[in-house]
Design brief:
The protein is of the alpha/beta class. Helix content is about 35%, strand content about 20%. The strands form 2 sheets. The protein has a 9-stranded mixed beta sheet, with helices on both faces. A two-stranded antiparallel sheet has the order 5-6.
C-alpha cells in the first residue's frame, strides 16, 4: 500500500513538472514566428510584395515606464536618426497574453517599410490605454530635443498627420476603442482590426466597443476554416462590418487559426498602411479599382469592400 502511494505521488509530481515545463515553453514561444514571411502562402503579387521586408534597415529603442505595461518599444527605420524628414506611425494593440515582446517580427516588418512602429507590454489592450500612452510618448519625444539626459532621436521626426493603429483579438477591440474613445482618437487616420473579439463576448468581458462610431477607413480580417475563428465567426465579423459607416474592407483568411491572424495577413495589412499613410498607389490596387487583388485572392473568402 505504501509503495503504491509513493508511486502515485511520483506520477502526480511528474505530471506537475511536465505541465509547468509545458506552460513555460508555451509562454516563451513567439506569437509570430520569425520566419512567418517565408512560410505564409500568398495569392497575389501585391500581397507577396508587402509580405516581404521593405527597403529600410531597422533600429529598435526600449524605454522603461512606471505604467503597468513596463516599457515602450519602438521599431523605426535606422535612417531616421540622421534624415531630415518625418515618418508615419503604426501603433500596435496587444492581444490577450501577447505583449509586443512576443511578436517583434511584425513590428520590425512595419519599420522596414518606413514606419515608426510602437507598442508596449500592455496586458489589457481592449481599452486602448497602451495605444494612448504610446502616442503621448511619441509626442513628448517629437517636441523635445532632449529629455533629462537623453537625446531624442525622434525630435521632429514623427508625422502625426499619418498615424494608423493595428491590433489582434483583444487588441482588435483596442483598435476600435483607440479610434473612437480616447483623447487622441482624432489623431488616427486609419486602422486595421484583426479578429476583434465579437460584440457579445466583448460585452460579457466588459470590453465594450461601438464600431458605429468609427469615422476613418478600416480593414477587418479574421480567420476561417478549421472550426472557424472562435473569437469572431464569419457572421460576427459581418455584424461588426455592418455597424461601420466609414470606408471599410473585410476578409477572412482561409485555413487560418485565430492566433495566426496576428501575422499571416501581414501582406495586406502592410499594403493597407502603405496606401493609407504613405500614398502608395500600387498598394492601393489591393483594395481599389475594378478588380481589387484582395477580392480575387484564393487565400481569402467572404471579401467585401465599400470604399468611396
Amino acid at each position: 500500500m505504501k509503495k503504491a502511494i509513493i508511486i502515485i505521488g511520483v506520477v502526480f509530481l511528474s505530471i506537475i513538472v511536465i505541465a509547468v515545463a509545458a506552460l513555460k515553453f508555451l509562454s516563451s514561444r513567439p506569437a509570430a514566428p520569425k520566419d512567418y514571411q517565408q512560410t505564409t502562402q500568398t495569392g497575389g503579387e501585391i500581397e507577396a510584395t508587402y509580405l516581404a521586408n521593405g527597403p529600410y534597415d531597422v533600429s529598435v529603442r526600449e524605454d522603461a515606464t512606471l505604467l503597468n505595461f513596463g516599457k515602450f518599444t519602438v521599431y523605426y527605420p535606422s535612417e531616421l536618426e540622421t534624415a531630415d524628414k518625418r515618418y508615419p506611425v503604426i501603433v500596435l494593440c496587444n492581444g490577450s497574453g501577447t505583449p509586443l515582446s512576443k511578436y517583434p517580427a511584425v513590428a520590425e516588418h512595419y519599420a522596414s517599410w518606413g514606419f515608426i512602429a510602437i507598442g508596449t507590454e500592455e496586458p489589457h489592450a481592449w481599452n486602448a490605454f497602451g495605444a494612448e500612452m504610446s502616442l503621448r510618448y511619441l509626442e513628448r519625444w517629437n517636441e523635445n530635443a532632449q529629455i533629462e539626459d537623453a537625446k531624442s532621436v525622434f525630435y521632429q521626426k514623427v508625422d502625426f498627420e499619418n498615424v494608423g493603429v493595428v491590433g489582434h483579438s483583444q487588441g482588435g477591440v483596442g483598435v476600435i476603442n483607440a479610434i473612437t474613445d480616447t483623447k487622441h482618437k482624432n489623431t488616427y487616420k486609419t486602422a486595421v482590426s484583426l479578429s476583434p473579439t465579437n460584440k457579445e463576448l466583448a460585452h460579457n468581458l466588459f470590453w465594450d466597443y461601438d464600431a458605429s462610431l468609427i469615422d476613418v477607413p478600416i480593414l477587418l480580417i479574421s480567420g476561417a476554416g478549421g472550426g472557424d475563428d472562435w473569437v469572431v465567426t464569419g457572421e460576427q465579423l459581418q455584424a461588426i462590418y455592418d455597424d461601420i459607416s466609414s470606408d471599410k474592407c473585410m476578409a477572412r483568411r482561409c485555413d487560418t487559426a485565430h492566433g495566426e491572424v496576428l501575422y499571416r495577413p501581414d501582406g495586406y495589412v502592410t499594403a493597407w498602411f502603405m496606401w493609407q499613410l504613405q500614398g502608395d498607389e500600387y498598394a492601393a490596387q489591393a483594395f481599389t479599382g475594378d478588380t481589387p487583388e484582395l477580392m480575387t485572392n484564393s487565400q481569402y473568402q467572404d471579401q467585401k469592400i465599400n470604399i468611396d
